[in-house]
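**Backbone geometry record:**
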Amino acid sequence: MLRLFNHYFPSSAVYQVLIDVLVLFCAILLAAFYVGGEVAATMSSVVPSALVFAVVMMALSSALGIYGSHRDASFRDLLARIVLTVLFSVPVAWGVFRMLPWGGERYQALDATVIMILGGVLFVRGVSRRSGAASMWRRRVLVIGTGREAASVEYSLTHPHHPGLSIVGFLPVPGSDESLVHPSRVLPSGRSLLETARALEADEIIVAVRERRGGTLPLSELLDCKLSGIKVLDLSCFFERVRGQVRLDSLRASWLIYGEGFRQGTLRTMIKRVFDVAAALVLLALTAPIMLLAVIAIGIEDGFPVLYRQERVGQGGRVFKVIKFRSMWRDAEKDGKPRWASANDNRVTRVGRIMRKTRIDELPQLFNVLMGSMSMVGPRPERPFFVDQLTNEIPFYAVRHSLKPGVTGWAQVRYQYGASVDDAVQKLQYDLYYVKNHTLFLDMMVLAETVRVVVTGEGAQ
C-alpha cells in the first residue's frame, strides 16, 4: 500500500495508473507524429498537452473504479463498468481536445485516433484487473494469530478480493488455543519468526492478536523482523490501510490524542470552505433542471410541500435544519416517533425511491452548504434522537461532530444503508477514518466515488 495525501492506495493500482498514463502518452505522440509528419513540430506542440490529457483521463478512470478489484465480478458487471468508464471518459476527452493546443488543422484526424486508443487502454485494463494480472505487485503477508482477529484479516482481504496482498499463512501464538482459520493454513511453530518469514518470503507481518486475551506475543522476534526490513503492522494500521476504517474494537483515547491525524486548523478550514462554496455553486447550476423535474414529480404524486426541513446534529453538536426533497408520504411519521430509514422503507413514495437511488433528494442540501451549516463531504448528519442513543451506546461517536456534516461522505460511498445501531457502528468506523485523514484530495475522491455510486446504481442513503 502507498500513502498519498494521507490516503492509502493499493500499490498495484498506483503502478497500473502510471503505466497506463505512459502508454497513453506515448500512443498520442506516435499518432501525432504519424499525422503531423514533423518530429520537431510534434514534440513542441503535442508533448505538454499529451501529458496533461493522459493524466486527466487516467485520473478520471481511476475515480470511476476501473482500477478497483474486479476479480470476483461477473463478466456482465465488468463489461458494464468498462462501458460506463468509456462513456464518461470520451465526452471529457473530446472537451479536453478542444481546449489543448494540438497544432491546428493538420491534427484534426488525431481526435478520433486518440479516443480509440483511450478506449482500448481502458478495456485492456478492466479485463486485466479481472484476470488477476496485478499479481506481479502482490505483497506476501504473514499473519500472527489464528483467532477471531486473524479470521477478520483473512475476510478483509477476500471480501472483496484485495489484489495487492496475499496471505502466506497464519502463525499461532504460544499460549492461545483459539483457532478460527482453516487448519491447512496454520503454520508449524518450530522455527523462529524471522526464519519463518524469510522462508515464506513474507513482505509484511500483521499482528492479529490481543495480548489481554491470552497468548504471548514474540516482541523480540517481531523487532528482529522489523530490523530485517519486514514491515510489521498491528490491527489498527491494517484496517486503516486496507478497509479505510478506524476500528472501534482496537481504538483507545490515547491513540486519538497521541497518534497521527485528527488535525484541524484555520488554513485547512478555509481551503475546505472555499472548495465547498465553489462546488455547491457549480452543482446547483448543473442540477437546476433535475431539481425542477423533481419538484414537478413530487407535486404530482403526493402534492405539496416538496421540500422538508428536519433537525440534524452538526459540527460541535449544534442542531440545524437540513433541507431535502420530500421522499416519503406526508404522514410518514404522524405518530411523532423517529424511525431508522431502511433500504425498502414502505414510507417512501415511488418518486422518492428513484430520488434516493440517484441521491436527487439530497440536492437541496447544497443550500445548507452555501449557508455554512454543512460541507460537501463529511460525516452524514443524524437526528438528535438517534445521536443521543448512539452516543450512549457507541464509544467515540461524538468524534464525528468535530467536522461539519457532509452532503456525501466516505462512509456513504463505502457502506450503504444504516438502519440499526450495528450499521451505525460500521459507518462510524469510516467516519473516523475521514475525520483522521480528511484533505482536499480525499474530498475530491469522495465526490468522484459518489458519482460512480449514483451512476452504477449501487444505492445510497
User: Anything to note?
Assistant: The CA atoms of residues 383 and 421 lie 14 Å apart. The chain is about 50% helix and 10% strand. The mean pLDDT is 79.
